[in-house]
Each structure stands twice: as C-alpha cells, then as structure tokens.
Specification:
Blueprint lengths: L11 H7 L15 E8 L7 E4 L5 E10 L7 E13 L6 E8 L5 E3 L8 E3 L10 E12 L7 E9 L6 E4 L7 E8 L13
Antiparallel strand pairs: 1-11, 2-10, 3-9, 4-8, 4-10, 4-11, 5-6, 5-7, 5-9
C-alpha cells in the first residue's frame, strides 16, 4: 500500500523575507533579560495633580497605568517619579502605596504590611500657611504571574484631614511619570527579596 503525503506549497523567498534577523524572538531570550519596557507620561494639557485630605487611601487618577506581561514567570519593575506637596504641619504624614488591579478586578497591594510604602513626615513646625514641595522616586518589584492586562496605580492619604497633600503638579504636562519594565523568568527567585 502506498501512502502519499502532501504539504501545502509555500514560497521560500517570501518566508525568509518575513523573518526579522535583527530581533531575537521573545521566547528565545534568556531569563533575566528585559523583554519589554513601557513609558507613561502625564496628560498633554490641563491638570496633572491629585490632591486629597483623606485619611484613607484614595486613587491618584493621573498615576494609573495598564500593562500586559509577555510571560507568566516575569518579574515586573515599576518606577514612578513625581512631585509631591503638603502643608507644613507638625506630625503630618503623607503615605503613598502602589497597588495592582488584577484581571478579575481584585486588588493586590505591592507590599507585605499593606500600610504604605513611603512617608513624607514630621517637619516639626505648625505653620499651616507654609507648604513643602519635594520630588519622589518610587521603585517596586511585582510578580503578577499572568499574561493578561493588569493595572498599576498609586494611592495616597494623610494622617490628619486638616492637611492637603498632592501627587503630581500642574504644568508638568507630557512629563515622564512611570516606567514599567518586564524581566523574563525571575519571578521564581523573588519572594519579597531576592534569594539564590
């Protein structure tokens, strides 16, 4: 009995021209390599700041960005940079935290104690007519273990509602506010600290 196998014809020259010889396919890059980086900017015009007097965490609407990992086992590095402001009151703490909104709309705090990542704290002065401006840089590591789209956002609060705190600054339109970097294959080495 004779068995004949046939394959659909294809043009080898056209197939070769489709290959990108100067780009390594993502699935072939070694673990520890950056496989994508996304840059996020403040709005083109209008307001670019979020103020609150809330003593509970609230979203900072200009600091909410979506990201889609390429690999389940990636480590994600999120870096935020912005100005902050608060009135110069004694023992007033501006607390900022980073959270991830998962594909199922649940929220994960990117920290262990859920109390907030950074404090802009006690200046030892009670003159509320003065204001303090600072610049902050926040870098956090996450292991979302998904290739679905997730959302990273900053939240902030103040420990006493008599003080207004701010993330961002009007006039900083089109300024870089966030960089999210995916590093392939490192999630298994990270449990809040790197282990070898």
């Amino acid at each position: 009995m004779t068995v004949r196998i046939s394959k659909p014809e294809f043009n080898l020259r056209n197939k070769l021209s489709e290959l990108e010889f100067f780009k390594l396919p993502y699935h072939k890059i070694p673990d520890g390599s950056v496989c994508q980086r996304r840059y996020y900017f403040m709005p083109d015009s209008g307001s670019a700041e979020n103020e609150t007097t809330s003593t509970s965490f609230v979203d900072a609407s200009y600091f909410i960005h979506t990201f889609t990992p390429r690999f389940v086992d990636s480590l994600i590095m999120i870096e935020w940079t912005t100005n902050i402001k608060r009135n110069k009151n004694d023992s007033r703490y501006h607390t900022i935290r980073l959270v991830r909104v998962n594909p199922d709309d649940t929220t994960t705090n990117i920290e262990f104690d859920n109390n907030g990542l950074f404090f802009e704290g006690a200046y030892g002065a009670s003159n509320s007519g003065e204001s303090v401006y600072s610049h902050i840089f926040i870098r956090e590591i996450d292991t979302p273990q998904t290739t679905e789209t997730i959302t990273y956002k900053l939240q902030h609060k103040i420990n006493n509602s008599d003080t207004t705190v701010r993330l961002g600054e009007n006039g900083h339109n089109r300024r870089l506010s966030c960089t999210i970097t995916e590093i392939k294959g490192l999630a298994g080495l990270y449990d809040g600290r790197f282990v070898s």
